[in-house]
Amino acid sequence: MKLNTAAYYIREGLTNVKRNRAMTVASITSVTAALLILGLFLIIILNVDSIANQVESQLELKAFINDNYDATKVAKVGEEIKAISGVKSITFESKKDALNSFKKQLGDKSYLVNGLENDNPMPQSFIVKVTDANMMKQVSEEIKKIDGVTQVSYGQDVVDKLLGIIKIIRIVGLFVILILFIISVVIISNTIKLGVFARRREINIMKYIGATDWFIRWPFLVEGIVLGLVGSVLAIAILGFIYGYASDLVNNKLIIFTLLSAGVVIKQSLVYFLAMGSLIGAIGSGISIKRFLNV
Amino acid sequence: MIKFVGVSKKYKNDIIAVSNINFTIDNGEFVFLVGPSGAGKSTILKLLLREEIPTTGSIFVDKKDITKLKRKEVPYLRRNIGVVFQDFKLLPNKTVYENIAFALQIVEAEPKYIRRRVPMVLSLVGLSERANSYPQQLSGGEQQRVSIARAIVNEPSILVADEPTGNLDPDTSWEIVKLLSEINKRGTTVIMSTHAKDIVDSMKKRVIALEKGNIVRDEMRGVYGYEA
Hints:
The complex is a heterodimer.
Chain A: H1 3-19, H2 21-57, E1 61-65, H3 71-83, E2 87-93, H4 95-106, E3 124-130, H5 136-144, E4 149-153, H6 156-198, H7 200-208, H8 213-253, H9 262-290
Antiparallel strand pairs in A: 1-3, 1-4, 2-3
Helix pairs in contact in A: 1-8, 2-6, 2-8, 2-9, 6-8, 6-9, 8-9
Chain B: E1 2-10, E2 16-25, E3 30-34, H1 41-48, E4 56-61, E5 64-65, H2 74-79, E6 81-84, H3 96-106, H4 111-124, H5 140-152, E7 158-162, H6 170-185, E8 189-193, H7 197-203, E9 206-211, E10 214-219
Parallel strand pairs in B: 3-8, 3-9, 6-7, 7-8
Antiparallel strand pairs in B: 1-2, 1-4, 4-5, 9-10
């Protein structure tokens, strides 16, 4: 493609965008709306993924020890846990350690546990790392049998549940994305069709004087891609803005997990958005010119 | 060279537009296509431009069977055949200059070449003064000159004119035919369908007469032969 021909395509495409002003606004708005909803699903998926990772990285057992056990008894329990096959390492967390780490989790709300030092309600425990995540259940059963272990907890349930939720969200999200995609394509295709219809005489003449199909098609493709891209840029700007506020708000309230920052979300979804926007535009215009090329 | 070999065209509604058409037109010829409305003149021109594909038979342009062209190849056939229509088919929102330059843009000619070539063709059709006018500001004859200029700006070897004087008064029609004849003298094959008896009779060129889809007459220095 020659440079001046490419310039011609872009110039003509932009002329079309300006010519159908009302329809241009309508289709950009609908692409933006569709991509906003699409982006919502993307953000949910990204966040649930990240939370699942956070939980998975904490994939360790916690064996709580009887509060009345003294250091020597606790050490003996520790020896017994270590002896179980599949245990990689154990770390002792004293009552004081437990309180401190809880304080840390609370962050600037740590005043909530002030004064508890003398009557510490936190249990002492062993944090047990296993060699393989699949052995969690087996190891936890073994540990439960040891005298002095009051309770064993591990994050497996949470992880399983989260993975299940992610799967459902992914399926629903994919379905919604597909529908929105089709709707956007139809809307853009209708907008372009108006332009093509207005220029059918011109297209007809172009065919007679030997223009190739692609020569006729390109300006309309440019128009469609511009509509799609503008729509997706708007969508991501709005989404980033709202999400920035929302995630700050949630992160301040939520203690256990943190939501991804707006910057990370936008960075991760930007390429999807731009690709989706231009694909919607290109397909939409491709559909609408097809019929007019048969001369 | 153009060669029709046993060409028939039957439309979907079972109307037979032309049947078993055979003729050869050599390079540089000037040929009138005459006959009553519906005799098949337009169909022959449409077949030549590959707007229609014959039901049977072959059509050769420069030894290539154009009935076998792929969709992709059709534009290149049309670049070699200039077309002039009865209703001019100019773009109303482009000036005379732009209308003609457009035909060169489509074949991706260099801008430098376009700037040189368009004024040349404008002067050939005698419209240098009107380069910046819009089609609706021109008379019918002038518009047809623009459309002729657009048809020949690519230097096609064949020029097809489908009733080019159909919308013009007799004097203007003569000017247009003289222009076509001038182009023909420069080596372009010209095929013109027409109802203009006077013109055909006084030009004394080859005449192919059609009736009900058949060639009824093909004379080297022919006349119109119908009551106008």
